[in-house]
Amino acid sequence: MTRLTSEFWVAAYLRRLQLANIPAFVTAKGNATAGNIMVKLNTLDGRAQAFQRSYDAEGGRIWMLLSEGDDKDVDASLNRQRGFDRDIWIIEVEDRNGRHLLDEPGFSD
Fold first, then answer.
1. What global pTM score does this model have?
2. For 69-92, what is each residue's pLDDT tens digit?
3. Architecture in CATH for domain 6-94
4. What phi and psi, each to the nearest 5 degrees, are found at residue 106?
5. 82 sits in which H/E element
6. For the residues of 22-74, what is the DSSP string, one character each?
7. Could you report the per-residue pLDDT of 19-31, keeping only the tens digit for each?
């Protein structure tokens, strides 16, 4: 199976969010080919969640909750991750309704 580059995946994700009228932007640009991707969902009420792409037991891609809580605590968690790995991408999604689209078909690829 062919894997998409990180840069291509991020561009497609941002476009899909744009089509759903969900604001999002890249806060950290990682390795264009194989950088890990993390998504921060900011619900604009002081709360946030961070998700990380990972693998399930069968080797399929899934999104795991990395952290949740106060926005500043989630930012600190992502900053720690970025300190370990400068090649990661961080995308911030802003939606009061908590939509991130990661549970839609195509985003586990």
1. 0.91
2. 999 999 999 999 999 999 999 999
3. 3-Layer(aba) Sandwich (3.40)
4. 100, -20
5. helix 71-84
6. --EEEEE---TTT--EEEEEE-SSSEEEEEEEEE-TTS-EEEEEEEEEEHHHH
7. 999 999 999 999 9
Question: Which tokens is 63 given?
Answer: 């999104």
| Cα distances (angstroms) measured from residue 32 to each of 43, 44, 97 | 28, 29, 30
pLDDT on residue 108: 58
With tokens 């809580």, the residue in question is: 69
Tokens of 56: 């399930």
What is the tens place of the pLDDT at every residue in 34-66? 899 999 999 999 999 999 988 888 877 889 999
* Chain Cα centroid distance, residue 30: 12
